[in-house]
Amino acid sequence: MTQVAGGKDAFQLVHHLTLTGSQFEIGSALTEEARRLGWSPTPADPIVNQARRAWFERHWPQHHDRMDGAAAALGLDPGQDELALDGLNYIPEGSGCSALWVPPSAATDGHGRVGRNYDFFPLTTSEIMGGTPGPDELPMASRPYVITTVPDDGLASTVITMSDLDGCMDGINSAGLAVMLLIADFENAAPPEYVSPQVGLGSVQLPRFLVDTCETADQAKQALLQAKQYDHGTPLHYLVADAHGQAFVWERGRDGSEHIVEFGDGPLCVTNHLLHRNPDPLSLPADTAASLGSYGRLRTLYERSKGGALSPRDLRDSLRAVQQSEDPAVPFRTLWSTVFDTADRTLSTRFYLGDGESYSEELVFGPR
């Protein structure tokens, strides 16, 4: 593990963790790192937990094998049902964000790319909950990880996470499939009432599931349509793009309906409102205090991406145009800004170092 950005005196301290071997060995190593950060397995309903393990074994064997590795690291029977051995989270989840897919046909060099800003609160958990920070309490998103996994069998990947070490917010695999999550419905998000693990994919597990199991956007569509998914009251949507120039947004409606949103062969913009309810970038409603600028950010991305071809610099400039300001009245900061090159199978990222401190230099990571 190496430190790649920031430091103890900066807002973020970023580590890059590279793991190789079997999925069992990778799961064991992730668990050891999570334990070092203070994680411990959580109690689970035995009936639900048994069904969870069966679902993973059938639909996501890579994760199932990593859970067996977690059990070994903890000295537990992998078949026990009283404790959940995944969800290696060390801080809460949830994010704002903006993203823009530029297909090969709209790129000056023919490389399909996705740019995304990851926006989150620069606050401690106590402050988010309305209290005062405890002694030495760090902001929730101040210790992100870049994790590269190169399993003996299957797809290698690199992901970025601020919470679950076995999930992610951004990821790209060795086939060039890129996935990222964004809050889908700011105006109607609600605090979770029940946070125990359920059968299927949790919000931050879904991107990791796709980079583990899929090589193309078409495969990802089928995998998602056949999967169970839950979000604990904070609906997210996901931009998925591949090395063949295909991309879509996956989201679920307020009634539980599932939607695949595409935009033909042109650029695809996504922020923090449901696209299937507002599919036309030219007919978006006005922002409200609750929407936190989602409609305005999408309009900006659309205007900057329509028409002529975009260069890599154009894409980065578009991300800067919707980057969160360093205004004390604004609850978010853009904590990292990433460009995925699906042709080169890389992600290039700048990390936020604090107000007035700008960002780290751009770091380039590949899935191997």
Automatic annotation (TrEMBL):
SUPFAM superfamilies, alphabetized: N-terminal nucleophile aminohydrolases (Ntn hydrolases)
Record-annotated Peptidase C45 hydrolase domain positions: 113-350
Highest taxon of the lineage: Bacteria
Pfam families in the record: AAT
NCBIfam families: C45_proenzyme
Name the record gives this protein: Peptidase C45, acyl-coenzyme A -6-aminopenicillanic acid acyl-transferase
Gene source species: Nonomuraea cypriaca
